[in-house]
Amino acid sequence: MEKFELHILGCGSALPTTRHFATSQVVNVRDKLYMIDCGEAAQMQFRKSHLKFSRLNHIFISHLHGDHYFGIMGLISTMGLLGRTADIHIYSPFGLQELLQAQLDSFYNKLAFNVVFHVFDTKETALIFEDRSITVTTIPLKHRVPCCGFLFSEKPRPNHIIREMIDFYQVPIHEMNRIKNGADYIMPDGTIVPNTKLTKPSDPPRRYAYCSDTMYNEKIIPLIEGVDLLFHEATFAQTEEKRSKETMHSTAFEAATIAAKANVKKLMIGHFSARYENEMVLWEEAQNVYPDTILAKENLYVNI
Amino acid sequence: MEKFELHILGCGSALPTTRHFATSQVVNVRDKLYMIDCGEAAQMQFRKSHLKFSRLNHIFISHLHGDHYFGIMGLISTMGLLGRTADIHIYSPFGLQELLQAQLDSFYNKLAFNVVFHVFDTKETALIFEDRSITVTTIPLKHRVPCCGFLFSEKPRPNHIIREMIDFYQVPIHEMNRIKNGADYIMPDGTIVPNTKLTKPSDPPRRYAYCSDTMYNEKIIPLIEGVDLLFHEATFAQTEEKRSKETMHSTAFEAATIAAKANVKKLMIGHFSARYENEMVLWEEAQNVYPDTILAKENLYVNI
Q1: Smallest Cα–Cα separation from B231: which of B261, B258, B249, B204?
Q2: Phi, psi of A188, deg, nearest 5
Q3: Percent of chain A, pLDDT > 90?
Q4: Which of A92, A152, A256, B290 could bridge A289 with an S-S bond, Cβ 3.0-4.6 Å?
Q5: ipTM score for this prediction
Q6: Which pairing describes strands B127-130 and B134-140: parallel, antiparallel, or unpaired?
Q7: Cα(A212)–Cα(A193) distance, rounded to whole angstroms?
Q8: Bridge-partner residues for B210, per DSSP?
Q9: Are B18 and A48 inside 8 Å of each other by CB?
Q10: Do the chains contact at B102 and A106, CB–CB below 8 Å?
Q11: Residue A203 reports pLDDT greater than 90
Q12: Angle value at C-alpha B139, between B8 and B281, nearest 5 degrees
């Protein structure tokens, strides 16, 4: 399986503690890195996770609360000091550039790259990024300010060649790409060799859905149906349901309910409120509803 | 001795590493806290040093490079979430408010306190802060942008009463403040009891000088002459003297030379370049010139 990993840089909520950093994650797809949210000290956590700044070109910001973007300036500053020349692209709801422009202007003349801002609509799902390996689609969420989650989807990969059969039928090299993409092979004498004899299907494309910050919202279910991994915020336990609703966050129970209804393969909960000295209470609550639940943790990484 | 401590929150330079956070320190004078510089993640390090946010009312920023101020927004955000109502005062060279205003506006309506900016001139030394316990005076430094260090001076304290002598001469209570401040006591029969019989001098006022970022600059010597503790940046070793001059930083040798010429009681060096895996090379270089040298370190605190 090719690399498709999730690295947790921070999984606390607005109030950082000695246990948790503010929100930030990195998706690693075949050594290309995509950052999701960038809370304060994300760059230190990035380093601690042994990731390479030069591999990071795209940052996706869910919403404009400080615990999801205060780390951007430090990260950009560090990229500048490391001699970066490639542009960095930042995708966010409207307003981020306006929040950062004064600081960017203060050292823009010393950066050898551009910071390119891309604004997305938070009301409707849309494809906001695509390269050879993945697509990124927004997942509209319900929070106190405009907010979207992100669905990272691997692109379907060509079939795997069965080497022995290719040799047996003496398929010429120039036919190979067509065959990888599903074509049959027509031999010089006109005999048709069906594609299924020549190839094995590649691994099914994998998907990762990030949903934070949000209150319980069943509208996201069709968008995340069956994903390999769902990260859903679980700021509170059910005992704090009132506070959770007021602040438009989710409880662990609610996160697990979404996971169950969307038939996801695995659930990770995070964005823990500072009030929980130990998140086992959140894990147990979620795990009762949706057994395949894990807790996010700083510098944890999982294969998707 | 009353409390006069220095806490190091971060002592790296512009490029944070897994070993060092960006610059930030806290001076604790009788449980009132004064922050010097506020690099990224200063709030996490503040918490880790077991300091209380409610005790912090004044922040002094030496200059407007990101590694000295990127932590301010996170700190203010956290103060807001903790329900703070007391104003926070920030002292800096011109321009800091302009860098932060857009972000402050984005949550100003949710803060129950004001962020009050005070601008100081970086060309001449000046008294910029004073309360019952201390004064803070600027120390003009030479760096790539306008920059000042800070001299924290305890105010002289009243003499200590010698209880037995007060009883012996039957000094009335209403005379006590005068006597603590040096007055003689005149007995009902006109006899003069000299103050030296009634009091012992209090401990001499202590002073802490913070000098970062700066190139070697002998002009600061008269301002820091004889201080109890000097923090002087030592970004590089002498082997990097060229780079040090280009970036207008100091070497460990230069920091120690300043300490020796200013007859300070103790030197702490910090603001270490990310290139040094181990700062012992900097310590040895400084220590050869000025023996009473210590290395800054995250979450270290020293009594001044």
Answers
A1: B258
A2: -50, -30
A3: 91
A4: A256
A5: 0.91
A6: antiparallel
A7: 49
A8: B150, B231
A9: yes
A10: no
A11: no
A12: 45
- CB of A47 within 8 Å of any CB in chain B? yes
Q: For residue A105, what are its two tokens?
A: 């202007």
Looking at the structure, give the CATH architecture of the domain made up of residues B4-157+203-303.
Answer: 4-Layer Sandwich (3.60)
With contacts defined as CB-CB under 8 Å, which chain A residues touch B48?
18
Q: Establish whether the linkage from the previous residue to A31 is cis, with ω within 30° of 0.
A: no
**Residues of B whose CB is below 8 A from A98:** 102
The helix-helix angle for A280-289 and A252-261 (nearest 10°) equals 30
Task: Provide, as residue numbers in chain A, all residues whose Cβ is less than 8 Å from the Cβ of B41.
Answer: 40-41, 44
Which DSSP symbol is given to B279? T
Taking only Cα atoms into account, the Rg of chain A, rounded to an integer number of angstroms, comes to: 22
The SS3 of residue B250 is coil
Task: Give the DSSP letter of residue B197.
Answer: H
A53 in reach of chain B (CB within 8 A): no
Copy the structure tokens of residue B127: 């008294």
List the structure tokens of A247.
Answer: 């602040």
Q: Please give the sequence-ordered ranges of beta strands (E in DSSP) within A175-292, or none if there are none.
A: 185-186, 192-193, 199-200, 207-211, 229-233, 267-270
pLDDT in tens, A20-55: 999 999 999 999 999 999 999 999 999 999 999 999
Question: Is B157 in contact with B202 (CB distance < 8 Å)?
Answer: yes
pLDDT at B1 over 90: no
Considering B31, B37, B67, B121, which one is annotated as catalytic?
B67
Helices A96-107 & A72-81 angle (0-180, nearest 10): 30
Domain edges within chain B: 4-157+203-303, 160-200
> Distance from B201 to chain A by nearest Cα, in Å?
43
Q: Tokens for A180, please give them.
A: 């990888």
pTM above 0.80, yes or no: yes
Residue of chain B whose Cα is closest to the Cα of A145:
B106
Listed residue (B100, B87, B104) closest to B61, CA to CA? B100
Q: In what order do the strands lie in the sheet with B134-140?
A: B127-130, B134-140, B148-154, B207-211, B229-233, B267-270, B293-295
User: Does B121 qualify as catalytic in the annotation?
Assistant: no
Inter-helix orientation angle B96-107/A96-107, to 10°: 170
Cβ–Cβ < 8 Å for A23, B86: no
Contacts of A22 in chain B (CB under 8 A): 74
What pLDDT, in 10s, does the model give residues A2-21?
A: 899 999 999 999 998 889 99
- Bridge-based pairing state of the strands B32-38 and B56-60: parallel
State the Cα–Cα distance between residues A231 and A251, nearest whole angstrom: 13
